[in-house]
Amino acid sequence: MVKINENYQKLQKSYLFSTIAKKVEEYQKKQPEAKIIKMGIGDVTLPIPTVVTEAIKKAAEEMAHKETFRGYGPEQGYDFLREKIMQEDYKKRGIDIQMDEIFVSDGAKCDTANFQELFSEDNIIAITDPVYPVYIDTNVMAGRTGKFLEGKYEKVVYMPLTEKNHFIPQLPKEKVDIIYLCFPNNPTGTVLNKEELKKWVDYAIQNESIILYDAAYEAFIEEENIPHSIYEIEGAKQVAVEFKSFSKTAGFTGIRCAYTVVPKEIKYDLNNMWNRRQSTKFNGTSYIVQRAAEATYSEEGKKQIQKNIAYYKENAKIILNELKKANLQAYGGINSPYIWMKCPNHMKSWDFFDLLLEKANVVGTPGVGFGPSGEGYFRLTAFNTKENTQEAMKRIQEIFK
Ligand code: MLT
To answer: Which of 2, 170, 279, 339 could cross-link to 333 by cystine, CB 3.0-4.6 Å?
Structure first.
């Protein structure tokens, strides 16, 4: 008889963003006239830069000719893209990362989800609370978390991000093995400066831990002294794996391209292990997509991408300002496309979600969906159009004025 992976029984009923999508769909069916504005999942809305679509067309055309056709590519990514990543994202920042430390993939979600496979089941994991649910759910599936009791998994170390600690995670008192950090943070939109991040690198060195550092929102950083890569911190190459994505940076949520950096200096032979894992389970990101990603590094590509990011950042400003005018408390949104607002009148996250959906036809993400410390909070994204963002704020203000 087949035995299923019982760990799946320990998961919440459905993935956070699927639950929200279903709720919204049901509401829309009941209220077909409602003009719903979606500020829930962090999905981009601006079209991808034309320099990227041109690269896609050119690469597709190459596939139509015998001389330039390509089949399977290298599982780690084509050199033309890895070279650009190495130069533009690292060498230009004074960081020495080699090409064989860069692994191109089809998304940071899959990479952050899959990387835990390299570690045994009895490692202690530490996550911020709230957290991007992928980190925790994949560890649940792998049997590393124990049971879900009173809103928490029993074997996981939760590091609360609260107003009290200014959304800066405190070093765990106990010894932990694998630490997930995401900065600029999803969901709170807040950041760690270099001194704060250094504490984590030092902790990992002292305790022989590994940091899995998700820098998917790095392109939104505008303030000084905020690290764009964990490798800006001395010693990080010994202890940290870094995940980066073209999704939010260049509008690739539908195209799919990301990369993971696994330094050779890092302990436990992780670079070789990840290489072995990827070459066994992954057949590479498509040639066409990698040419698209390469185009984001051209002068024109960079210009177009910056314009799109500036557009979203303007939306974030609108959200922060308008919430303030309505006397609603909000955080993040400066170095990030996410705004983390406090639900008014001590409302719970899901109650606020229902209220906004029904009274304002605005969708956001309930904070508690990201972890118990997210209860009473709500996440809005700046990824909608300016017009929709303004309209959503007007509707919210009408409820709370
Ligand atoms: C989010 O809304 O948290 C992200 O868009 C989810 C993701 O990147 O997978």
So the answer is: 339
Residue 265's alpha-carbon distances to 83, 119, 164, 268, in angstroms, are 19, 17, 36, 9
Choose one of 15, 16, 17 to mutate for the ligand 1 pocket test, by most ligand atoms within 8 angstroms of C-beta: 17
Mutate to test the pocket of ligand 1, among 20, 109, 111, 186 (most ligand atoms within 8 A of CB): 186
Is 1 part of a structural domain of the chain? no
Say yes or no: CB of residue 256 within 6 Å of ligand 1. no
Q: Rounded distance, CA 362 to CA 356, Å?
A: 5
> Does residue 33 sit in the same domain as residue 66?
no
- The CA 309 to ligand 1 mean position distance, Å, reads 16
109 and 91 co-located in one domain:
yes
**Separation between Cα atoms, residue 323 and residue 220, nearest integer Å:** 20
pLDDT, tens digit (0-9, with 9 covering 90-100), for 314-361: 999 999 999 999 999 999 999 999 999 999 999 999 999 999 999 999
Is residue 398 within 8 Å of residue 391, measured between CB atoms?
A: no
Residues 142 and 286 in one domain: yes
pLDDT tens across 194-222, in order? 999 999 999 999 999 999 999 999 999 99
Q: Note the pLDDT of residue 220.
A: 98
Structural domain span for residue 349: 7-47+301-400
pTM of the model: 0.96
Q: How many separate domains does the chain show?
A: 2
Q: 186 in ligand 1 pocket by Cβ < 6 Å?
A: yes
- Distance of alpha carbon 168 from alpha carbon 185, whole angstroms: 10
CB atoms within 10 A of CB 52: 26
Mean pLDDT of 243-268: 97
| CATH number, residue 313 | 3.90.1150.10
Task: Say whether both 35 and 60 belong to one domain.
Answer: no
Q: Whose CA is nearest to atom 5 of ligand 1?
A: 42
Distance of CA 315 to the CA centre of its chain: 19
How close is the Cα of 42 to the center of ligand 1, in Å?
5
Same domain, 368 and 289: no
C-alpha 217 – ligand 1 centre gap (Å): 10
**Residues 196 and 309 placed together within one structural domain of the fold:** no
Q: Is the CB of 379 under 6 A from ligand 1?
A: no
Domain check: are 81 and 187 in the same one?
Answer: yes
